[in-house]
């Protein structure tokens, strides 16, 4: 039975009481990205497995261990997307978006699937906000993409995130680095885990991203990529730092960051928090100049980042950042008897057409039970309707916060009620100033 009443490991339900916080964060992310010229794209939850094998890379943890892959009824190998970039690049190519204005800028919010060990900040189904920019090789593009992530954290008022920056070079300078790394790790091969032993030949840089404690320790003495950058990559890296400084964005160069996906070239970066435990990377990204060509498209420099919205919200919570509350019921109309219910149905329908959040009794409760319900849902106003009110064609509306009642005609109830809300809001604003504050304001105005 537990299978029926317990969600699969590593998944989460977002309940109605929290869903508005997610909606607010999601809308805000897309809105801010929009101000930087990124337009939303929506791609499928599943793609051909080959896309991730090629796009994410055969030697990555994601492809080797974490993908949800299955054969569909048509005998195709299908994979639930573990990240957003490969799908975005596939769509970019399939729809010829490289013919649009350059740089092409895409953003998305999507659920990703990775078979990982669930823990705080790590789930098997998780949500990522991501952006991708295609067509610029300039370090200004790197700085702009990083500044978007930085701008998002600033907007939400998040503090103490460290931006760690590195360059992992291009295939040319990386060849020498791979050689040096291989030599280093070969000398200590007995300390490496099985997966890393395989990586030693195929992609020794991947070892630097291994989570195994013994491998991690060994990595501490490994050579730094930054000592192997070619002139162009070195210039590019300096350029990124120059533009970041021009924008007043603080960073530290961390030559150990290589990122978990194979397709990165040159700039890689992470925004790391130490407020949310071991899974502190809230946002990770970089440049992937070889990927579009790798997937069969024209040679196109590109870059982007992925931000886990779950970790983002954990950081906000840990820093006491409050998100807007869900809209509460403006008015609960409590009918007594059948005639009154008909009138209440009519009134609430008109109120909703005027944009007001209005409810009435669809359960058949006593007046007392209805008032309890109105209180439970936090209705801002209530209005009791009985035969008497219908005859008078007017009813008392009670402001639940102040206890004040106001009689409104039922004829233009929606308009009169809107006016009442506005009047109450205005007078509560006025009364929130003390006499002293009011006299100060007065003298300022007179000055
Ligand atoms: P990590 O080192 O934490 O495993 P990663 O390098 O695998 O991260 P990316 O593939 O770059 O992460 O994904 C970008 C972002 O997506 C991460 O910085 C993180 O915020 C989020 N993310 C990745 N995997 C998970 C997961 N299993 N659960 C929740 N969020 C995740
Ligand atoms: Mg990972």
Description of the structure:
This protein is α+β, with helices and mostly antiparallel strands and 447 residues long. The chain has 17 helices and 16 strands. The protein has helices at residues 2-5, 16-35, 49-55, 61-66, 85-94, 139-156, 171-187, 194-202, 213-219, 231-246, 291-294, 309-318, 338-353, 367-376, 387-392, 413-430, 435-446; strands at 39-40, 46-48, 68-71, 77-80, 104-113, 125-134, 162-167, 252-253, 265-272, 281-287, 302-308, 331-335, 358-360, 381-385, 394-399, 405-409. The strands form 3 sheets. It has an 8-stranded mixed sheet with strand order 1-5-6-11-10-9-7-8. The protein has a 5-stranded mixed sheet with strand order 13-12-14-15-16, with helices on both faces. β3 (68-71) and β4 form a beta hairpin. It binds adenosine-5'-triphosphate and magnesium ion. Magnesium ion (MG) binds at residues 61, 260.
Gist of the model:
With 447 residues, this protein is an alpha+beta fold. The protein is built from 17 helices and 16 strands.
Identify low-pLDDT runs: none
Biggest β-sheet strands, sense, barrel: 8 strands, mixed
Percent of sequence in beta strands: 15-25%
What best-fitting shape do the alpha-carbon axes yield? Answer: elongated
Q: CATH homologous superfamily name of the domain at 16-159 and 272-318?
A: Bira Bifunctional Protein, Domain 2
Named once each, the bound ligands are: adenosine-5'-triphosphate, magnesium ion
Give me the Rg, rounded: 29 Å
Give the CATH level 1 class of the domain at 16-159 and 272-318. Alpha Beta
Through-space gap between termini: 74 Å
Strand order of the largest sheet: 1-5-6-11-10-9-7-8
Q: Specify the number of helices.
A: 17
Overall pLDDT level: 94
Structural class, judged by helices and strands? alpha+beta
CATH architecture heading of the domain at 16-159 and 272-318? 2-Layer Sandwich
Strand elements, count = 16
């Amino acid at each position: 039975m537990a299978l029926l009443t317990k969600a699969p490991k590593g998944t989460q339900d977002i309940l109605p009481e929290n869903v508005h916080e997610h909606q607010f964060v999601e809308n805000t992310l897309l809105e801010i990205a929009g101000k930087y010229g990124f337009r939303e794209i929506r791609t499928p939850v599943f793609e051909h497995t080959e896309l991730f094998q090629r796009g994410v890379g055969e030697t990555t943890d994601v492809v080797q261990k974490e993908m949800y892959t299955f054969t569909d009824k048509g005998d195709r190998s299908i994979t639930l997307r573990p990240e957003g970039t490969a799908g975005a690049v596939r769509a970019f190519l399939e729809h010829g978006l490289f013919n649009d204005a350059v740089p092409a800028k895409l953003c998305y919010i999507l659920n990703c699937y990775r078979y990982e060990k669930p823990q705080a900040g790590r789930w098997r189904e998780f949500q990522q906000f991501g952006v991708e920019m295609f067509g610029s090789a300039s370090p200004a593009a790197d700085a702009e993409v990083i500044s978007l992530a930085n701008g998002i954290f600033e907007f939400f008022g998040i503090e103490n995130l460290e931006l760690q920056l590195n360059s992992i070079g291009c295939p040319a300078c990386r060849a020498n680095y791979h050689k040096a790394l291989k030599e280093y790790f070969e000398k200590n091969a007995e300390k490496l885990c099985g997966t890393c032993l395989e990586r030693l030949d195929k992609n020794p840089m991947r070892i630097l991203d291994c989570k195994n404690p013994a491998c991690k320790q060994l990595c501490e003495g490994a050579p730094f990529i930054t000592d192997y950058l070619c002139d162009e990559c070195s210039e590019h890296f300096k350029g990124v730092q120059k533009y970041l400084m021009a924008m007043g964005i603080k960073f530290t160069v961390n030559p150990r960051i290589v990122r978990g996906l194979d397709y990165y070239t040159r700039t890689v970066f992470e925004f790391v928090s130490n407020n949310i435990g071991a899974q502190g990377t809230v946002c990770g990204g970089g440049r992937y100049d070889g990927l579009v060509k790798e997937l069969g498209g024209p040679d196109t420099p590109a870059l982007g980042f992925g931000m886990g919205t779950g970790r983002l919200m954990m950081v906000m919570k840990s820093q006491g950042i409050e998100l807007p509350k869900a809209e509460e019921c403006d008015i609960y109309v409590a009918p007594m008897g059948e005639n009154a219910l008909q009138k209440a149905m009519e009134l609430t329908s008109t109120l909703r057409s005027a944009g007001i959040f209005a409810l009435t009794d669809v359960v058949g409760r006593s007046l007392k039970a209805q008032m309890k319900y109105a209180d439970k849902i936090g209705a801002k106003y209530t209005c009791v309707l009985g035969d008497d009110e219908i005859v008078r064609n007017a009813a008392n509306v009670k402001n639940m916060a102040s206890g004040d009642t106001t009689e409104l005609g039922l004829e233009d109830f929606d308009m009169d009620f809107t006016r009442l809300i506005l009047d109450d809001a205005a007078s509560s604003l006025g009364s929130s100033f003390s006499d002293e504050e009011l006299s100060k304001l007065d003298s300022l105005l007179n000055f």
